[in-house]
Amino acid sequence: MKISYHLVMTTIAASVLSAQSPQEIADALPAPTLDTASACIVLPKVEGVLIELGGVDYKQVIDRDGSVAQHIIADTPVSLFLRVTKDGKQVNSPDYSITVPANWKTDQPDGSNPKPAVVPAILQWKGAEGVWKPQGEVRVASQLSDFQEQALRDMTNLPVRRLSPAEWSENHQWDVCFEMNKEPFLGKEGYHIIITPEHLSIRASSPVGHVWAIRTLQQIMRTHNGSVPCGEIIDFPRYPVRGFILDAGRLPYTLPQLRDVINAMSWYKMNDLHIVLNNNFIFHEKYVDAGHDPFKESYAAFRLESDRKGPDGSPLTSSDVSYTKEEFMELVHYARERGVRIVPEFDTPGHALAFTRLRPDLVYKGAMLHHEKRRCEMLDAANPETLSFVENLLDEYMVAQEEGKPAVLADCDIIHVGADEFFGDAEDYRKYTDGLLRYVQSRHHTPRIWGSLSSKPGKTPVTTKGVQLNLWNSDWMNAHEAVDLGFDVINTNDACLYIVPYANYYRADENLAWLYQNWQPNMMYDEKLPAGHPQLIGAAFAVWNDATDLLYNGYGMYDIWPIISKTLDTLSQKMWGTPQPPDSFEQHCDLVQKIGSVPGSNPLYLHPLPEPIFIAPDHLPKSLDLPDLGPSYHLSVELELQEANEGEEQVLLSSPVGQLIAVMKDGSIGFRRADGVEFAYEAKLPIGKRVKLELIGSPGNTKLFLDGEQISRMRLNSSLSVEENFRPRTKGLISSFILPLQTLAPSFHGQVFSLQVK
Asked: Which residue intervals of the chain bear CATH 3.20.20.80?
């Protein structure tokens, strides 16, 4: 549809404007108007000046040529901006807000059902009368994925029956139907639900739209007594990238923990999980200043399976936690089923200590502009061999290695190449970065990169077309420069969106109320892009584990889960929904509480025990098959150790979440979590004596008692952590431990007389 224009200013005013600068004209333009008769946006006009629609945040409502969608069932606020060109200079106007009124005549009669509250909020709702509530079973008149079937069971607490085409087409006796319609007004992720007392019709343009529809229905049924109010929903996101960045390089996360993250993201319609696969301790100067060698001693990790080894025989793949190629492929598939894409990051040429240890000959040789003591982690961007090395490394995951088997990252459309905080020469950086971006594109993936070019000006061109860029700090990359260069940008501003647990800086999680009420995805702290800028593709928050190595206190995913979860639900509303949130932050928190936890996920291992568990085992080892318990718990075990061989570990309780160890290799009592982190108490079990061992777990603290006396000292045994005096850390520990209750005494030399958990 063609835009209609009309003159909205007098000739005199237009003449006055014509004499002004392009930016003065843009700032003085009146707001565009909506011509409901032609369903078009009407733009102002100034003689001798080209005025165009620059962009719209809800492109599903108003497209690039100004046409208004004909399928709008409720008044919808839209932000747009104008692009003004005069004398060859192009500038942008401020944002304008326009409310597009409902214009779709539906078959649904008007009713009294108010809009159901979900997180993030539904964009368009038209209420009707009555509710949909299936009885006995849920009859489905369409093909179902395993995820859809499980979600329907979770949602209704009823069995699900897939009808054959003959069954439902003849008599229309069905409850739920998933339809795949190419409806342009929905976009890729939008969905359209029609709810009547008899039927639930779910329409989308892609499978991910069906996932988001299911998430909305699951939340509605949680707050409506297992029913769905009749009416009609049209919903789609404001921005296509709604992300979370998890630094798995500096702190290990297990696959079950990553699946919990994916489930929580899917629950709140967050769709972009950026996993940092390699990273290292960054404060190498602490080692250098103490006379130690950070190249040998600083913590570094690469989480994917690889056969590569350094000159000293040490493997590239992390020894504490890593993912096999098959496991990572399965994780990508698991995420995709739930509407989440995984973006793996391979960070070079900085933050690359895992790679410089593999190739010490490729440590950067050029002049360092800053942080000379951090040279050990910088790959030699000036050496063409470095790019070849990194390309070859990536080929292990981007190219199929066996006939008939896909590449590990075949289903990862986007590959993040890192390229942040390189302190070497700008031209070296630009040439290396350009080569890496072009390489990823040659492998038919979209490259994503950290914004750094504002701090690395130079003559060497860097490709930008088809490249996504994280705007993380305006000193490193200016937002307006980034879009002018041609990047598609993601707001990841460090001042607003970074979280460094257990640090005194970067704590976005402590400003959630402000973020909910004030922050917008187009606000980069001291910079602002138009909300509807076509190159602003979304936003992401990040958890960075700077507090590793010399700064590590023992925290794990359990300890930071509330931070992650709360930030997810807060920012999901801001990235998916309208600029103005539907309620106050306090009301939002109440709604999250009312809706409840993510179905099928229990990251805090909450399993209430109405009665204490008591076991008097008749043999060892003994399978318990009890649910693992997150803090709080009180374990009491009457036992007698009969022998302890030097260097031999004896496990008292075990499951995939960890082990309670009666005898560690040095003889101490301790525990090991699934992330490989160990805690050891300064106590040993006596041999040949019956004792009572008690473990009392609370969030952040796990206490040990022997015969009623507390063992007050413990140390942290981990490749992640040493104190600044280079001894094991013993103070200020975060020692949360999920109690493993799958197997009793799988390798204990002695007797267990009784076990009680309450």
From this structure: 241-595
